[in-house]
Amino acid sequence: MSASLVFPLQGLRCAGCVRKVEGILAEQAGVEEGSVNLALNQVRIRSPQISVLPALRQALSAQGFEIPFEHHIWQITGLNCASCVTKLESALNQLSGVDKVSVNLALNQLSIDILPEAQHLSAVKQTIIDCGFAVQQAQNEVQGHAQQAVIPWRLLFSLLLSLPLLLPMLLSSLTLAPLWQWLLATPVQFYIALPFYRGAWLALKRGSSSMDTLVVMGTSTAYGYSVYLWQSGQTGHLYFEAAAVIISLILLGKYLEQRAKYQAASNIAELVNLSPQQALRLNEQGIAEQVSVESLKVADIILVKPGEVLAADGDVLWGSSEVSEAVITGESLPLKKQVGDRVLAGSINGSGLLKVTVSAENRDSTLSKIIQLVSEAQSGKAPIQSLVDKISHYFVPAILLVALTTLLVWSLLGQPAQGLLAAVSVLVIACPCALGLATPTALVAGTGRGAKLGILYRNIQALELSHKVDQVLLDKTGTLSEGQPKLVNRHNFSELADSDLLRLCASAQQGSQHPLAAAMIAAADSQQLFALDYFNSYPGLGIEAQLLQLPQGELLVDRLYLGNQRFIEQQGIVLGQAQLDIAEQCLQQGLTVVYVANQQRLLAALAFADVPRPSAKLAVAMLKRLKLKVSMLSGDAPQVSRSLACDLGINDWHAGLLPEQKLAQIKQRQAQQATVMMVGDGVNDAPALAQADVGIAMGGGSDIALNSADVVLMRDDPLLIVQAIALARQTWRILKQNLFWAFIYNLLGVPIAAMGWLNPAFAGGAMALSSVCVVGNALRLKYWHAPQGETDV
Fold it and tell me: Largest Cα–Cα distance in the chain?
C-alpha cells in the first residue's frame, strides 16, 4: 500500500526548478507520484517504500536542492546490547520522515535526522517507547554523552542477598537450609531482576530477543529447577545460588561497564561542562550585569575577571592577561592576550582583567562547534560495525538454539540434570554486549582523546582513512612555514617614494586573505589606506585592484597588479634583464618575490621572508618514520620551495603550482592506488583538501577550517599531523583488539559451557567481565600520549 509524504524543499526559485525536481522524482525508484508546490516550497510524493527518503535526499542534493532535516541527539535509557541497537535502528528506519539513524551503545545515544513536522518527531519518540526504551532530549542538542555511573541500590541489595548463598561454596563446612536459600534467592530473581524480565517481555512482544532474554531464561531455569528439586525432596545440591549470583554479577558488570563508558567519553563531557552559564555584560553605563550566556549577542562587551572562564568568543577590547586555551586547542602554555587579540569561549583567564567584545553567539562559538563536530563523529559507525550488527541480530537466537541442543545431547547421554546446568551456562556466558561495545567504545575514546589534544575528526570515515594513509602532501605557506612573512627588501623601479609605494600596495591588498597581503598591510606602517573601487583575486598568481580617491600627481595610477612573474607577464608587462637579475638574487636567498605593476610598466619588486615552523623538521622526520611518503606542494617559486624543502628534509617537492595543478597531483597519486592526506591552511587549497582521501586544515580553529576539512587541527603545529595519524592508528588497533576478544570470548566460552566444564555462576561472572574488558581496553585511549620525538614513533 502506498503512503503519501509531504516535506519542505530548499532551493526552489522558479518554474524551471519545479520541472527539474519533478524530473528527479519521476526517475527515482520507489516514487509512484510526485508534485512540487513552488508557492509553499513543498514536495509531495506517494511511495510504497518507506525507506525512499535517504536515496531521494541524495538525488536532490546532487542537483542543489536540500531537504531541511532537523538533526537530534538524544540520550536513550534501556540499551543493553547490540541486539537492542539493531532493533531500535530497524524500527526507526521504518518510519516516514526519517533519514539517518545511528544508535551508539557506548554513549547510550541516538543520532537521527527527522523532517521538521511535529508528527514525525512524535512518531519517533513513540516508536522508541514502544521498543521498550526511554528517550531524554539533551538540553543542548550537541551535548549528549555517557552518563556518570552511580552505584544502584539494586546492585547493593542483590550483593547483600547473594553473599550468604555463596558462603557454602567457599566454605564446605557451612550449609544453608533450602528454605533460607529460597528466601534469599526469590527477591533477587523476581524483584532485583525485574528490569531483565521487562526487557525480555518487550523483546518477545516485538518478536525478537536480546541479552535480557538470555539472562531471564538462564536464571529462571536455574531457579525453577532448584524449586523442583527442593519440592521433590532432592535437596543434595540446589542451584538457587547460581541464579542469584548470575544476576548480581551481571548487575556489577553493568555498573563497571557504565563507569568505564563514562570515562571513555569524559573528554567530550569535559568540553560540554567547560563553558560557564553566566557572564558579566557591561551595560551602556559601563556597569557589569550578570546575564545568561545564551543572551549574549555579537558586539556585547563582557568583563572577565582573573581566574574566570571566558563565556564567549571575542576580541580583547581593554586590558591584558595570560589566557590558557589548553582544553580548546591542546596548547599547554598560557598565551599572552592584549588589545585586539582573539580569545575563545572556555579558555581560562590568568591574573589580568579583560574587557572582551563578543564576536559570536554561544551556539556559534568555537567551543560549541568543537562539541558538535566531536559528537557527530562519535555518533557515526565504522563500516565494520554493520557486519557486527548483522551478527548480533542472529546472535541471541543462535545461542538459544545451542542451549537447547546442549540440553538434548546431555539428555540423550542420560544426564539431563547436567544438561540443564550446561544449557544455563551457555545462556548466561554468551555476551552480545561485548560485540556491540567493541567498536563504538574505541571510536568514542579515540575521537574524545583527539579533541583533548586539539585534533578534531569530522566523522568516522576521516578516522578510518587516517590510519590507512600512505602519502602525506604538505602545503608550504602556513603549514610548514609560519605563514607570517615579513617584507625584508624592496626594489623600487618607479618615481614614487617607498612609503607611497607601500601605501598603494597595502591599499590594493585589502581584499585579500593571503599571508603576503597581511605582510604588505603591516609594512605600510599604519598609513591611511585608499578605498578599493575594484578587486579580483587569481589563486596561485596574484591580484588586480583599482583604488578610489587617489590624489592628483605622482600617486596617480590606474589598475594595479601584484603577483608572481607569470601573472605580471600575462598582463603584457615586459621585465627587463636587470629586474630579473635582482629578483633572481632574492629567490636564491629563499625569499618570495612579489612584482608590482600598473597597466604600462613594472613599478617594484618586493621580497618577503617566511621562516619554517619550529616543529616542521621534526614533524617531517616523524612522518617518514611512520613509513609515509612526504611531499611538499607550493605555489611559490622553485628557488624558494627548494630552499625550504632542503632545510626540512623533503625530497619530493613541487613548486609554482596553481590550485588545479595541486588537485591534479592528488588525483595522479590516487590513480596509483595511494591513500592521500593533504594538509593545508583551510583558507587556500580548498579543492585539494576536498579531493584528498583525508583533508587536514591547520586553521587554528577558524570557521573556514572547522567547516572545510575532514580533520581540523586546533593549533598551527605540524606535529599535530603526526599525532592525528598515530592516534587514528592506535584507535583502529584498539578497535580490532576489541572485536577479536569479543568474538574469541564467545567462540571459546560457549563450547566450554556446553561441555559442562563451567559452573553457571562463573559463567555469569565471565559474561559480565567480557564487556568490562572490552570497554576497559578502549579506555586506554583516554591516556594515550602523543609521540614527542623520533624515538617515540
Answer: 119
DSSP alpha helices (H): ranges in 12-97?
15-27, 52-62, 82-93
Can you tell me the mean pLDDT for 301-318?
92
Distance, in Å, from the CA atom of 432 to the CA atom of 412, rounded to the nearest integer, reads: 29
Side chain identity at 6, as an amino acid letter?
Answer: V
**What DSSP state is assigned to residue 674?**
-
Residue 677, phi then psi, degrees to nearest 5: -110, 130
**Per-residue pLDDT, 563:** 93
From the list 529, 492, 483, 486, the residue with the least C-alpha distance to 510 is 529
pLDDT digits (tens, 9 = 90+) for 496-545: 888 889 999 999 999 887 888 889 998 887 788 888 888 998 888 899 99
Tell me how crowded residue 40 is: count the other CB atoms within 10 A of its CB: 12
Q: How far are the Cα atoms of 90, 100, 128, 530 from residue 96, in angstroms, in the given order?
A: 13, 12, 15, 58
pLDDT at 144 over 50: no
- Exposure class string for 386-412: b at 16+ Cβ within 10 A, else e: eebbebbbebbeebbebbeebbeebee
From the list 99, 313, 475, 693, the catalytic residue is 475
- Give the separation between CA 320 and CA 58, rounded to whole angstroms: 50
H or E, element range at 400: helix 383-412
Better-scored residue on pLDDT, 267 or 694: 694
The Cα 737–Cα 642 span in angstroms is: 44
**How are beta strands 694-697 and 711-713 bridged, if at all?**
parallel
pLDDT score for 132:
83
Q: Is 475 a catalytic residue?
A: yes
Q: Which of 222, 181, 219 is nearest to 197 (CA)?
A: 219
Strand-pair partners of 544: 536, 561
Calculate the alpha carbon distances from 634 to 555, 570, 640, 645, 676 in Å: 34, 20, 9, 10, 17
Name the nearest CA neighbour of 9 among 40, 50, 47.
40
Q: Would you give the distance in Å from CA 332 to the centre of its chain?
A: 22
- The whole-angstrom separation of Cα 288 and Cα 302 is 8
Q: In Å, how far are 535, 708, 731 from 728, measured between CA atoms? A: 43, 20, 5
Distance (Å, rounded) from C-alpha 230 to C-alpha 232?
5
Region of residue 77 (left: phi > 0; alpha: psi -120 to 50; beta: else) = beta
Judge contact between 304 and 352, C-beta under 8 A: no
Q: What amino acid is encoded at 503 in this protein?
A: R
Alpha carbon distance, N-terminus to C-terminus of the chain: 60
Place of cell 536464571: 219
The predicted structure's pLDDT at residue 616: 93
- Could you tell me the three cell numbers for 329? 586547542
Tell me the C-alpha distance between 41 and 31, whole Å: 19
pLDDT band at 387 (very low <50, low <70, confident <90, very high): confident
- Candidate from 75-79, 288-292, 357-361 with smallest mean pLDDT: 75-79
Q: How confident is the model at residue 407 (pLDDT cuts 50, 70, 90)?
A: very high
CB of 9 closer than 8 Å to CB of 17: no
